[in-house]
Amino acid sequence: MKKFAVKTTALLIAAGLGVGAAGSAFAAESLQDVMKRRNLTQQDLLAAAKTYTPTGGRDEFLAFASGGQSGQMIVYGVPSMRILKYIGVFTPEPWQGYGFDEESKKVLAGGNIDGKSITWGDTHHPAISETNGEYDGQFLFINDKSNPRLAVIDLRDFETKQIVANPIMKSEHGGAFATPNTEYIIEASQYASPLENQKFYPLEQFNEKYRGAVTYWKFDREHGQLKADQSFSLELPPYSQDLSDAGKLDSDGWSFTNSFCTERYVGGIEKGRPPYEAGCSAKDTDYMHVVNWKRAAEIAKDDKNVKIINNHRVIPMEVAIREGILFLIPEPKSPHGVDVTPNGKFIVVSGKLDTHVSVYSFEKIMDAIKNKRFESKDPYGIPVIGMKDALHTQVQLGLGPLHTQFDSKECVAYTSLYVDSMVAKWNFCEGKLLDKIAIHYNIGHLMTMEGDTTKPKGKYLVALNKLSIDRFNPVGPLHPQNHQLIDISNDKMQLLYDMPLPLGEPHYVVGIQADKLKPAIRYKVGTNSRTDQQHEGKVRAGEEKTVREGNQVKVYGTLIRSHITPETIEVEQGDEVTIYLTNLERAQDETHGFTVSTYNVHASVEPGKTISVKFKADKEGVYPYYCTEFCSALHLEMQGYLLVKPK
Ligand code: CUK
Ligand code: CUA
């Protein structure tokens, strides 16, 4: 059996490469049988050989996908497209105990807004931390568009460590984007609203009282935390700001943020007006915002230059204009993505309602600023650089160009064409279309390996398709999305694989060379994984105890195959119970889980970790607790009883 399998594999590859299969008649026939039975072509075999990963094999790249409306993240391997993990971020995720143990509840509470907990998120754009414009594999950031928030994930254990709420925005789409040394994480607002918290102004005062903004969150790499007190924002006009990107190399120190609806149109004020989307597309151009964030960071330190809004430092537009840190450039109407080329010299913008990509030259922009060559001012007095003065080239690619990523090959870019359902490969230096491939269907973002850094790795492209329609077995009216893997190592792009993504709409994905990641195998015994500190509830084997203070009962327990210590917990009805548990295992992958019947608590306790669950024992009765991971032959015996005695 073994021998047969080896031969078949060798022949499959040989046949796929067109070498022919003359070796063993039996095996060759078998391969052809399979091809015939499954209706496969030579091209299919080649694609299979490029993605198939035998047991124990590893992927060259890891992809981190936003989980869209699920508020989580999805980790998968490239080229195998095997899903490896979900990461709970803005939404409780029971497998990891996220939102069901005390440590993760504290992380989620960091994202409370107006004192209320929000248990979902609309995640759009992940970003990996960078050093000198290259992914360093230490941290991952992701935004929540609906409730303007950012989260920090530590890539040593793939756990969410921090959530912060934007102090002045009501929605955001322009995050998370990292500056080249992760000095700041950029977050730009989407729908303009009053910046003051819980402040009402009627829509008639839209132009005067509603504002956009871009926030620069200071990142403290040593502690892995965004620092609210060292962060600042720039007040922007009430345009709908959209995606952002940070400059790199030549353009380091600058950032770029798109906008749409610079018409400042608002719907619903009077009857008979055009609908919102029509009113918002009246003009031929919108504005790219060009910000000198390095200088803005200096300016924001001086109290004289900022307004304090909701405890947060905001540089008003008039200060930004006076200090020469904010400029506008017209861009084809209703733009979506803004992407800085790997050499930092060009900024690529595509308008959903324009068939071109527009390539702006950073050098030309700087030249216009230096020589004060402005064509006009916007209604708020912000200098506007003429489009012709800033453009390097425009290339006609097709209908609905959205986002652009880059190849390891010089000057080569890929742009998604939403309406055409295609990916275009083109040259941004010479402004030339090179190749096109059909995808299925309606692509949003696309992603090449490390394709938004200074050193893209090429090889693969993933098309993030909004609609899958007929690609998979039907599962009801709500379809999964379709991530299509495309080989970009040759001149012609080749479609390799369709992967259904069933966990929300992963707007954007970032892919990193897997060997840059150094995830931990276990925690140091007694670690609170969410803070990376020694846990107050840590105990060693033999030191387990239960402590009572008034109606507070604290249990200091341990987990090791196949035993929960203590085996019983006795409390009185009404007691506040905290159970601390340390997993004493040292073996790889020996995770234990913990739950108590009907008290809605759950924890995942990986080797070395200490967790706590807390609840009020408000019901008299007998409640089994047990280990929720099948950890050993005596897993089912890994249990105990919570005994709640009547008062
Ligand atoms: S994305 Cu968020 S609307 Cu094109 Cu960056 Cu899908
Ligand atoms: Cu521990 Cu099952």
TrEMBL record:
Principal cellular location given in the protein's record: other
Keyword annotations of the record: Copper, Metal-binding, Signal
MF terms (GO), sorted A to Z: metal ion binding
Entry's localization field: Cell envelope
Cellular component annotations (GO), alphabetically ordered: cell envelope
Record flagged with keyword Methyltransferase: no
Signal peptide coordinates: 1-27
Sequence ranges assigned to domain EfeO-type cupredoxin-like in this UniProt record: 562-644
Protein name: Nitrous-oxide reductase
Portion of the full-length sequence here: 1 to 647 of 763
